[in-house]
Aminotransferase class I/II-fold pyridoxal phosphate-dependent enzyme
Amino acid sequence: MSDATYGFDTLAVHAGARPDPTTGARNTPIYQTTAYVFRDADHAAALFNLQEVGFIYSRLTNPTVAVLQERVATLEGGVGAVCCSSGHAAQIMALFPLMSPGKNVVVSTRLYGGTVTQMTQTIKRFGWSAKFVDFDDLDAIRDAIDDDTRAVFCESIANPGGYITDLRAVADVADAAGLPLIVDNTSATPYLCRPIEHGATLVVHSLTKYLTGNGSVTGGVVVDSGTFDWSASDKFPSLSASEPAYHGLKFHETFGPLAFTFHGIAIGLRDLGMTLNPQAAHYTLMGIETLGLRMEKHVSNARKIANWLEQDDRVNYVTYAGLESSPYFNRVEQVCPRGAGSLFTFAVKGGYEACMKLIDSLEIFSHVANLGDTRSLIIHSASTTHRQLDENQQRAAGADPEVVRVSIGIEDPDDLIADLDQALAKATA
Ligand SMILES: *Cc1c(COP(=O)(O)O)cnc(C)c1O
């Protein structure tokens, strides 16, 4: 079942899944197998030639993972998806078919800390580079794009401050330059924001966060909109030109709108091997069934807590985009109409020392480097997740040394407020 005319919550439970044809098992079984028996020699040859779609080996495809791929693709409004072993793997898998040595990606300064490090340091080993600009400044994005640019990359609701990107405006800039826009939709989830509807070409997720939703899995996914014309220029030869590893097959010519997805499996997973395991896919499928319910509670809790913090004189400011005082408030309606998520930062009076005391005094909030858990989480980004950045980069990202980042869970909001209240008292005593 993957009929896009059903509502979001119906698709979150059913898309991609059907009762097991041999046993009738209603929940998607965990296909804990490495390999699949071929019907005969011709079947094996056809699969290896990409003439027939089927299961060969679980580094490439697995039936449990395939259900998850179809479910996320459906929820995002894409044509296909490729799961991989983590959110960071998904980012490499998204860039891999587009980039080659000497090429660059134009990226937002407001990103998950690990992504900043991946883009500033690690991708250089591949001969790729990233140009960081403020994505609120469209001219800066235009100016950064050059002949060697192959993609534009940002987050929908951006880490750590919960800032909202004007996806439509950024997509128009990418479009005018003939480039794909990649949106990391981890903090929003497709329940709050569907980047493809705002012009994104590819959507990446860390499944680790809200999609699984309970802090038990590491995983990632790349969703393909199927709308980009990879053959319109000679910039994307991996997709438009002959592929020597498949006897000269051209992915875009052969697979049309599914070119990126097929390339992701047939080349990306085959050769990079960043595969999601079926156990992790199973936990994520169970998590996604309750995505809508959880996101409603995450958002309503975040609203209450952000409002409470903003009115407290032990707090200097709160960055939640769902607050009327936020410069991003007017983007909520357009980009994520069901709410601004549950991730934001706040500045504690007393600066760094007070932040540390606050974190150590909390009882319900967990001090961890994660987000999008049912549990409420807190961290001091500048000294942890954004530690590899210099102070200018930290401030540009919104990870100022005097703020803490929270990911508001689905507990009782009054308990969370009481916990913050007692910890703020200790932190500012
Ligand atoms: C966590 C996260 C990532 C990285 O995902 P992993 O699953 O930890 O590799 C990327 N982007 C955002 C926005 C994240 O929150």
Observations:
- The mean pLDDT is 95.
- The first strand starts at residue 80 and ends at 84.
- The first helix runs from residue 8 to 14.
